[in-house]
Amino acid sequence: MGDQPATAAHATVVGDAAPTEQTHLHTEVRRSSAASREITDTVLKVRDLEVRYGDFTALKGVHLDVPRNEITAMIGPSGCGKSTLLRSVNRMNDLIPTAKVVGSVYYHGEDIYADDVDPVEVRRRIGMVFQKPNPFPKSIYDNVAFGPRLNGVRQGLDDVVEQSLRRAALWDEVKDKLKGSGLALSGGQQQRLCIARALAVHPDVILMDEPCSALDPIATMAIEDLMQDMKRDYSIVVVTHNMQQAARVSDRTAFFTVNVDHRTNERTGELVEYDLTETIFTQASDQRTEDYITGRFG
Ligand SMILES: Nc1ncnc2c1ncn2[C@@H]1O[C@H](COP(=O)(O)OP(=O)(O)OP(=O)(O)O)[C@@H](O)[C@H]1O
Ligand SMILES: [Mg+2]
């Protein structure tokens, strides 16, 4: 998060659609028994979400539940609003002056846009890892200790740093050079350092925006293995352009597309389908999903 502009929060929220019991989307028909696996424990509920940048509506009508201790993939063509959605569920869009969020996001049942909610605390609990590894120009140790220090932690930092690096599967590679620069690590190591930095403040949801797109296949596999390991303790939402990756790592997949209004030429993102990954990849309900995952799209 360190590379984000520290401007004042401007996002506003209207509407108070309460979370409902129903945890599925508009795809009423379930064609396989596996597809009926319900979400029993939800960490994030997104209701009727719309995000605008000034007059431009980037995304609208999003309704989705993120289950606990699972990996949820978000896929769809460039510009359909995947990053916009990720930033809306941990209030990172507050940092974009023109962004306006309409609708509701509930984290463990609590509306994260309610007046008395501290966006910094939201971002601590719902951490984010970006496409390009972005370690601070500091030592490996100081990168991981950064968040805890910001939160006032002074004691036990060595333990927090070690535990976070272990959880990010980086400890063995860096334990002898903790004072070395984070920028001196390889791309894959830098990304794991960023994951360790996110974990150090004890989040329970991790948002990953194309975390492997700057990495080679070996580093990508290391991150995918790590994600599988992490889901025991965290709930993960990952945006990816890599269909194989979505199929390999995720439990559920949400497919988004861009609707073009031919009169105004407005391009608005919408959620087409959300289901078990297996269902999305083998028997998608919507032709647009099938076209996209089989590469027939644009
Ligand atoms: N800060 C911003 N100001 C204005 N418009 C924005 C801003 N960020 C994104 N947009 C617009 O919102 C739409 C959705 O963008 P977003 O980055 O969320 O898409 P995406 O699905 O993540 O795309 P990609 O796959 O290329 O990363 C796009 O039309 C984009 O141009
Ligand atoms: Mg994006």
From TrEMBL:
PROSITE patterns: ABC_TRANSPORTER_1, ABC_TRANSPORTER_2. Residues 44-283 form the ABC transporter domain. The keyword Translocase applies. SMART domains: AAA (SM00382). One of its GO terms (cellular component) is membrane. The keyword Thylakoid does not apply. Gene3D superfamilies: P-loop containing nucleotide triphosphate hydrolases (3.40.50.300). Pfam families: ABC_tran. GO terms for molecular function: ATP binding; ATP hydrolysis activity; phosphate transmembrane transporter activity. CDD domains: ABC_PstB_phosphate_transporter (cd03260). InterPro entries: AAA+_ATPase (IPR003593), ABC_transporter-like_ATP-bd (IPR003439), ABC_transporter-like_CS (IPR017871), P-loop_NTPase (IPR027417), PstB-like (IPR005670). Keywords: ATP-binding, Nucleotide-binding, Translocase, Transport. Signal peptide: none annotated. One of its GO terms (biological process) is phosphate ion transmembrane transport. Residues 1-34 are annotated as: Disordered. NCBIfam families: 3a0107s01c2. This is Phosphate ABC transporter ATP-binding protein.
